[in-house]
Prior knowledge:
It is a single chain. By secondary structure, this protein is mainly alpha-helical. The chain has helices at residues 24-31, 34-46, 48-54, 60-86, 96-114, 122-149, 154-183, 190-215, 231-239, 242-272, 279-290, 293-304, 306-323, 332-345, 348-368, 373-401, 412-436, 444-458. Helix 10 (242-272) runs antiparallel to helix 15 (348-368) and helix 11 (279-290) packs parallel to helix 14.
Amino acid sequence: xxxxxxxxxxxxxxxxxxxxxxxxxxxxxxxxxxxxxxxxxxxxxxxxxxxxxxxxxxxxxxxxxxxxxxxxxxxxxxxxxxxxxxxxxxxxxxxxxxxxxxxxxxxxxxxxxxxxxxxxxxxxxxxxxxxxxxxxxxxxxxxxxxxxxxxxxxxxxxxxxxxxxxxxxxxxxxxxxxxxxxxxxxxxxxxxxxxxxxxxxxxxxxxxxxxxxxxxxxxxxxxxxxxxxxxxxxxxxxxxxxxxxxxxxxxxxxxxxxxxxxxxxxxxxxxxxxxxxxxxxxxxxxxxxxxxxxxxxxxxxxxxxxxxxxxxxxxxxxxxxxxxxxxxxxxxxxxxxxxxxxxxxxxxxxxxxxxxxxxxxxxxxxxxxxxxxxxxxxxxxxxxxxxxxxxxxxxxxxxxxxxxxxxxxxxxxxxxxxxxxxxxxxxxxxxxxxxxxxxxxxxxxxxxxxxxxxxxxxxx
Length: 460
């Protein structure tokens, strides 16, 4: 994006405009759809491949290929749904029809995936994953875009996203707790774990879908008589938007750091610390404290703004990860304390960056005349999916290069290499994420000017 003149008109000393605060109960209802959506992702990776391989006899190669194709479709469909939802015109709004249709597909896909028939084939798994991922995308992208459009106020947007993030953390926590409890009774019954998690997703999906769809009215998009650019013209505009690219790159770095920690935490607990009984507990502990992270960082964000808060959160996470270098076998208390601290900072950067996307979409609309909020959130989703691939793709080969072997004997030097990658890999990623938005120009004053210009344009 070219230099935008309204960033210079900061209106320093101007009074902050009062925001229309949405009722907290309504925001809880609106954000409740994040519970089944977030809760579905973890068991999809943890239990589905294991069950379909051991119980139904599918080869690991076939499962891997099907998941690869399914994930590719998931990534490819994000911008398609984002662009189409931006262009939807109906008396029900732009986002609501997509979420309703996506909810039906997601529910059907979840039922077939988590409650498979007596015999399955790779074709069955592929067809089910197609339904599952299609429904997921049709919910997730319009859901995020609608949240960004509920309010034009700088801080109120952060508050709305915080409610969504808290519901996501709650969904992840619940799907971690349920299998953990089942392990105490029937540890080897993978099918039961899959059925219980699937039942949880289906039981929460229908009421959450109704609550989200009717929590707030959605006005139909205004009819604009502007030339509609072709797909490649739109793609060029997106990837020339320097504000968006900085947010995307920062979020990719954030999620890369998170994926390194998630991918190595079990190895660190079992192989370095010698604490196999704590392998799942540490991860669960982090999510328990993560439920409280959203309100904490919302309060900080209201006081200091999104950019400063995101930077503070990322640097705090970097410091916590660096502190892991002081952890040695036998120091369980310090490891627990750092896991709890990690939970309290969890998602701080993701939260602020997600709230920034709607602000950047406003700047884009002012410059181009087109509202592409859905498309912007779809591209943001792509960055969030790229980060974990980068993190795991770098971390696992690196610890293997140090000589670490998950099974069998690893030398003291290899274990030290594991520790350094586990500590410094996420720390470096979080520092990079902070550096990318260090001088991000779209603050509260600049966004206020943008909203005023957009409001003035809409009344012409």
